[in-house]
Amino acid sequence: MNILVTGGAGYIGSHTCVELLNNGHEVIVVDNLSNSKIEALDRVTKITGKEIKFYQIDLLDKVSLHKVFAQNEIDAVIHFAGLKAVGESVTLPLRYYQNNITGTLNLCEVMEHNGVYKMVFSSSATVYGLQETVPLTEDMPLQAINPYGRTKLMIEEILEDLNLSNKNWSIALLRYFNPVGAHHSGLIGEDPSGIPNNLVPYITQVAVGQLPKLNVYGGDYPTPDGTGVRDYIHVVDLAVGHIKALERIMMVNGVAAYNLGTGTGYSVLEVISTFERVIGKKIPYSVIERRPGDIAISYANPHKAKVELDWTSTKGLVQMCEDSWQWQVENPTGYERKDELNV
Ligand code: NAD
Ligand code: UFG
Prior knowledge:
Elements: E1 2-6, H1 11-22, E2 26-31, H2 39-48, E3 53-56, H3 62-71, E4 76-79, H4 86-91, H5 93-113, E5 118-124, H6 147-165, E6 170-176, E7 178-180, H7 199-207, E8 214-217, E9 229-230, E10 232-234, H8 235-251, E11 254-260, E12 266-267, H9 268-279, E13 285-288, H10 303-309, H11 317-330
Parallel strand pairs: 1-2, 1-4, 2-3, 4-5, 5-6, 6-11, 7-10, 8-13
Antiparallel strand pairs: 9-12
Helix pairs in contact: 1-2, 1-8, 3-5, 5-6, 7-9, 7-11, 9-11
The chain binds nicotinamide-adenine-dinucleotide (NAD) and uridine-5'-diphosphate-4-deoxy-4-fluoro-alpha-D-galactose.
């Protein structure tokens, strides 16, 4: 099939492009490169031996988006493009609503105009907000606690409304838990700009000596060791989940949400100690106050994805740490080429 991947140059998008190409699909990427580098797609070609058609286009530019659909016979869309930093969304809410919501509205309008009704959407476990119980199941009441989360929740609702208006739509809402790790080739991985917000990229940058030490946000949560618990999921498992979701939406119309997580939660201290074992050295850290907006525990019940998508995670925490480390060591400055660095 011909698959349009919005945000395909990004972290999860680039790993999904690899899986799509390896499964025999043609891939067309639309990305404005606001949080990624074109080098990621060159590396995808290096891994797979297959070319990607790339358009540097902003989803806010509807005219250019129409041209992409006019020039290509698109069967389905995997929609990753969006801004994702929770803290930044609190300070720049308009930017987040404009980019994520308007970008998605434009995409849906252009899809509908061109008779393309199949979409896999990148949602997030953030739509569960604060819940009383874990594991989290898809039928729990949803709630967002910051502008980023609200964009995901609103987009889920917009896509539900679209399906109500026209039953041709077939949409999978994939609620990712905490994506980490990298492709085992060491060629593609997460390349955060500036100081990382997320735990694993922060740990790898401390381990490689780019940052002095890790701050552990909160040691007084109601968890076994007092630190926050999350469901870390290997990005390649996550990418495979998109192929499974694509297969499902080609067969069944409607809108359905799926948790993509392992079903196991690990604390921050467990992640640190696993990482230390993998790399054979200590990670300096201090436990400081809680980070505003963080929840204590989040992990998935991934049963629905197993039953309906035939998807289950295969890679454990050790492999997540090994692959994140390999990516960091082989690409200490991410995708930035040496000639761009002024060194
Ligand atoms: P990423 O920033 O690496 O990738 C997003 C890509 O979208 C980037 O390449 C960026 O340049 C592009 N983009 C952003 N706005 C655009 C626009 N208006 N037009 C065209 N391109 C645009 O992020 P990621 O980690 O790969 O996440 C992909 C998706 O998954 C996002 O929607 C994110 O919200 C969601 N998600 C991510 C996580 C996570 O922890 N990484 C968790 C849950 C959900
Ligand atoms: N943490 C630290 N130190 C750090 C970074 C994180 O102790 O430097 C802790 C956090 O407090 C949390 C855990 O490590 O307990 C994981 O934090 P991340 O920032 O890696 O991930 P979050 O669970 O906070 O956020 C992720 C995505 C968000 C998404 C959210 C809910 O990054 O986009 O999951 O789905 F909204």
